[in-house]
Amino acid sequence: MRLSVSIVLSLILLLFVFTCADNNGLIEQSVSATWKVSTKSQMWQDMEELTIMKGQGGKADVEIDLTSLKQEIEGFGGAFNEKGWEALSLLTPDQRDAVIKELFDPKEGAKFNICRVPIGSSDYAVSRYTHNEVKNDFKMTNFSIERDFKYLIPYIKAAMRYKPDLKVWGSAWTPPTWMKTNGAFDGGNMKDDPRIYAAYALYLARFVEEYQKAGINLYAVAVQNEPRMETRYPSCLWTPKQFLTFIRDHMGPLFEERKVNAQIMMGTICPRRYNRFPGLVLSNPKIQSYVSIVGYQWAGLHSVADTRKRFSEKSIMQTETECGNCFWKPGFKRDRPPNDWEYGSYTWKKIKAFFDKGVNSYMLWNMILDEEGKSIDSQLPWPQNAAVVIDKNSKQVIYTPMFYAVKHFTYFVKPGAQYVSIIYGWEENAIAFLNPDRELVILLENDRWHPETVNINFGDYWMTVELPPKSWSTIIVPPLQ
Known about the structure:
The protein folds into two domains: 110 residues, Immunoglobulin-like (Sandwich); 337 residues, TIM Barrel, CATH 3.20.20. Helix 5 crosses helix 6, helix 6 packs across helix 7 and helix 10 packs parallel to helix 11. The strands form three sheets. Strands 1-3-20-19-4-16-17-18-21 form a nine-stranded mixed beta barrel. An eight-stranded parallel β-sheet has the order 5-12-11-10-9-8-7-6. Strands 13-14-15 form a three-stranded mixed β-sheet. Strand 16 and strand 17 form a beta hairpin. The chain is globular. By secondary structure, it is of the alpha/beta class. The protein is built from eleven helices and 21 strands.
């Protein structure tokens, strides 16, 4: 009797296997992949789960190499700017909290975990300022972050309600004006003077210390935003040699002496023609012990791969996503940037491009702006895009396509994930990550006007997905044996 039961069970098992096998020899697994889609007409949809198959299914459209894991992903975020909090302040407390939740909540929101804050005014401050405009105050007796308690610190604290361990890094657009050759907020050169360097190092150290006293996890500092870009908003020109001298002889030693608990970022670097910054600065042996993060934005993409190759131990951050596909200019009237699907697609591709080159983290620029989105540029207050737009008159909150393009990454790719190489297929439109729990995160963009059927191979497994026209997809494959 026992033998008969055993034989029967074996026959049932064999029947099940043959029933599950298709003509290609694929065997359906008991697990499936979840799938989230955004299209031009409907954002953030839950789709029917995808069947995972095991076996040989012919030539794949996309082949993912699970044995080739590259850089670790640290996270995502954006910039806290005064104009963002000004826009949020138009809302009721409950409405404002709902917006912050959408960005920072670690369960339901975009799960941002790393963000940038200006040291003094950026081009999206309400007005120009630094934290010490008392001339020749080399000892920083008059240093104060009082201004930041009006806009920036409330903004950060609102985010920390949902993400108490939020990591914040500081970035200066301009030193105090008396440290510059033109004595102004906009443009000019950093003075090549040891006393000025020492005072500026103390200025940055005090910023870290005061923010940490305010209960904010200020974990890193960038010396200068775009040090080779002179603009009509707060900015300052530095040479690579000045960066080297300042960090090596002043900032690094002072941070050690004062036991400043913050990392130093060589950044934020933008134009590719200034590749000398990473080459000259990071090649110096003494700098190696001081600089742990390298920050690139905009055209800095062209330097990321070289830095990843030459200085593999450094954390590399994309520090500011490009801020729009419509720039205001004289003679071209447009009230605001479009914040349209095309800009969302442009941003999706930028995120992919920077991770393909080797960054560990990715930052938006403005997370929130009003419907005009204008900077404080003195002559050309050109509007820029944001993930969330708040209309000043109607108080309507708009989550732009860019918000969802970004959320397709940030919601699913966990800190500690690793970039996974794609051997071939959809090179411009597919990227993958392996989460610490071994979930495989596959992101695809169909930028065509018709559906696309895609066969995806990962290790011994396959699945087929039909991507809607003009869509972003994130597919989550659970850990497989």
